[in-house]
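Before going further, learn to read the protein records used in this course. Taken together, the tokens spell out the fold as the letters spell out the chain. A record is reproduced here so that you can trace the correspondence yourselves:

***
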Amino acid sequence: MSEMGVFASRLHINSQSLRAYDEALKILKKTGDQSKEIEEQLLIVLLPLKEVLSDKLSESSVINERSVVNTLKKLSEYKVNLNWSEYKSAIVHTIKKIEQKKKLQQEDFIILNDIGDALDMECAYLFQKLRG
């Protein structure tokens, strides 16, 4: 597969993941529905991130989790009073809350939005690579 083919394939997979993630997050915010289906859609993106943030090797083919984590790290640099270590812990804590079906707080939704933004930025990067 050519380099462009790789970028196109990654963009397609990341775009699908982003779409499903955004859809699930909107429903969760609007209705508070933490059904199994909503949880599964979120965890498809979140579990690979949790693995990388926990210094484990992720085997996900759904997203480029390392790139998304790097984007989240850059985002943490722009947030007031937030260092990467604290932010990383907060992300892992939020993911665990979803896994354990615990009620999410406003700060959890901020983190979930940041993850969606990071995934969106990865899609934009891949799109730019395709355009040359």
Remarks:
- The chain has a mean pLDDT of 86.
- The radius of gyration is 15 Å.
